[in-house]
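Lecture notes, continued. The same structure-token format from the folding unit now serves as the input rather than the output. Read the line below as a description of shape only.
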């Protein structure tokens, strides 16, 4: 006869008592079902939790990513701007070398200095970003090229400076600094609408807006030719620098030099004002070479006034 063991469960209460009996097989079966159901519920719960966790993480990563892509676009634009600024410097370099009478930088030398092998593993870098139109490697290469261009330009400017620093008095006679240290250009050289008549007229100098009393400096060594008052230009100083150069400073409030006086570059000669035909306090500044007006901005070797 097969031996059977049973488990008997007995409930006792005030009113009644009940008893259940389970065979060992049934008990094991029941336990298995309970364990399976519990395991199932736990798995579903964990899945649901980790899904929502990863969804949140993915969203965060996507946001970060689009920010990163935006930053890189921004950097690419800024590099483009720097390249065009550098292009202006390169052109100035050519002009300076012509003035200084030293050879221009050879095109091949420029290429050698600027070109060359790229040091960056493009694939590795590009794989960092999901978007195909953003190339991190080209950004790195652009920066690398820009750095080398700047270095070449710096060396070139040093060479120019060394060539001209003890050069002839012609350099000291060439207008080459700002006539005022502050202010901004309110009117440039060239055609413009006349502020009084509204007619199109050629403006032979630049107007630099600055408060009355702002010091005005001689832009090169020279001799004061005249200090006059005219209805158009108000108080006006004309300086002869030699080598065909002369400069004009108009609408002055004060004139601090006399005709025939020798002046040095950077010497204070007057103060900005609003005399003559002028709507607001400003300096009208002209540069002439052999009597022909030149754009004064071409004579600021030390920087631009903004
Ligand atoms: Zn003017």
């Amino acid at each position: 006869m097969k031996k059977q063991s049973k488990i008997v469960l007995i409930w006792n209460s005030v009113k009644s008592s009940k008893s259940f009996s389970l065979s060992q097989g049934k008990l094991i079966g029941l336990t298995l079902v309970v364990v399976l159901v519990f395991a199932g519920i736990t798995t579903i719960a964990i899945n649901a939790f980790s899904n929502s966790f990863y969804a949140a993480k993915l969203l965060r990563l996507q946001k970060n990513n689009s920010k990163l892509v935006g930053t890189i676009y921004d950097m690419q634009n800024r590099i483009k701007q720097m390249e065009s600024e550098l292009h202006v410097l390169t052109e100035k370099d050519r002009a300076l070398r012509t003035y200084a009478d030293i050879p221009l930088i050879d095109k091949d030398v420029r290429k050698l200095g600027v070109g060359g092998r790229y040091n960056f593993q493009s694939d590795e870098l590009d794989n960092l970003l999901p978007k195909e139109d953003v190339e991190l490697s080209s950004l790195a290469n652009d920066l690398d090229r820009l750095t080398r261009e700047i270095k070449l330009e710096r060396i070139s400017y040093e060479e120019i400076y060394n060539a001209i620093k003890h050069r002839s008095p012609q350099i000291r006679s060439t207008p080459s600094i700002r006539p005022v240290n502050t202010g901004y250009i309110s009117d440039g050289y060239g055609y413009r609408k006349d502020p009084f008549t509204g007619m199109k007229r050629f403006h032979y100098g630049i107007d630099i807006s600055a408060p009355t009393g702002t010091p005005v400096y001689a832009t090169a060594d020279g001799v004061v030719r005249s200090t006059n008052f005219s209805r158009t230009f108000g108080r006006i100083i004309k300086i002869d620098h030699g080598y065909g150069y002369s400069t004009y400073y108009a609408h002055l409030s004060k004139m601090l030099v006399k005709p025939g006086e020798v002046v040095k570059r950077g010497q204070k000669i007057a103060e900005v004002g609003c005399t003559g035909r002028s709507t607001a306090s400003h300096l009208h500044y002209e540069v002439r070479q052999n009597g022909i007006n030149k754009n004064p901005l071409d004579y600021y070797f030390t920087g631009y006034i903004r």
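Point for the exam: The two ends are 113 Å apart (CA to CA).
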